[in-house]
Description:
Layout: H1 8-14, H2 16-26, H3 38-46, E1 49-54, H4 56-73, E2 77-81, H5 82-85, E3 96-102, H6 108-119, E4 123-128, H7 134-138, E5 141-144, H8 157-177, H9 185-200, H10 203-214, E6 219-224, H11 227-243, E7 246-251, E8 268-273, H12 279-291, E9 295-301, E10 311-313, H13 321-339
Parallel strand pairs: 1-2, 1-3, 3-4, 4-5, 6-7, 6-8, 8-9, 9-10
Helix pairs in contact: 2-8, 2-9, 3-8, 4-8, 4-11, 8-13, 9-13, 10-13, 11-13
The structure holds 5-amino-5-deoxy-1-O-phosphono-D-mannitol (M6R).
Residues 55-58, 102-104, 107, 110, 153-155, 237, 241, 353-354 line the site of 5-amino-5-deoxy-1-O-phosphono-D-mannitol.
Amino acid sequence: EKGTYPHYMLKEIDEQPLVMRKIIQNYQDGEGALEIDSDIVAAMKEADRIYIIAAGTSYHAGLVGKQFIEKLAKIPVEVHISSEFGYNMPLLSEKPLFVFISQSGETADSRQVLVQVKEMGYKALTITNVAGSTLSREADYTLLLHAGPEIAVASTKAYTAQLAVLAILAEVTARGIGHEVDFDLVQELGIVATAMEALCDDKEEFESIAREYLTVTRNAFFIGRGIDFYVGLEGALKLKEISYIQAEGFAGGELKHGTIALIEEGTPVIALATQGFVNLSIRGNVKEVVARGANPCIISMSGLETDEDRFVIPEVHSLLTPLISVIPMQLISYYAALHRDCDVDKPRNLAKSVTVE
Length: 357
Ligand code: M6R
């Protein structure tokens, strides 16, 4: 039930800090260390390459998950859109492990790939919000998101829950392999939950950003580098899905290779700057679009901010920034849709789970 909330989407955005804390609890052992079923860790350790298969927002979570697994567990990861993988299977490694990410566990494109890889004799893990869903039943292993039912068509809390579970999977696997993890993930996810709360308390700010940048525009761009780019892809998907503004997310450095041609006087460009090592380059990209008339909205992280930034998110571990930088994306999209009188929870042409190919 959505209670006093006007929309499920807003309620689900607000639930994210609580979901974080639930996930930490559910994946802790008696001593408070993070724990994952030993068969899953063994399957991860045995794999010479991990293939993440997903669609939409879950695919965007997979892109960030690749960074977690490669950086912490040091296993190579490929991320594939399920509808592409089914028809254009890449050359597989000798010992692949397939990881399906799906909020609903019912997405037909992903199910089709699972059937194919099971027929080929490979092992599969499903990360899903729905225990007993088809993708969970048909895979060898399941990790649950513990996010509670997600009703709004636009996925919000499932995305951050997917990221948290992927981070836990990466950390536990890394320790299982014997790689040192030089931070305490339980503590860092706690900091994330607190930062999420602060962002959810700042709704007026996101409403005003949406009003200022997105009330009349035809299009909008999201730019970032590294994991900020992946969050930009998710921001663009959120915005187009519920506000029908044509939106595109792309890597800051790609601008000059084509997309910059679309920048006109007043075009909103939302730039994410949460990564110290590319802070200068992304700000350089912002200058390039501003020189062509763009209306920039820089969202940076505390410690990296400058006077030109529109919003500064609280500082969290540099690997975990997508868990919080996505919240401004979700709330800005939500208010943009409201300002444009769109049906936030049930956008046109879309279903909550896509059970047809
Ligand atoms: O249930 P799934 O995670 O498999 O769904 C995948 C996509 O259909 C889903 O993420 C879709 O992109 C959302 N509507 C995005 O908000």
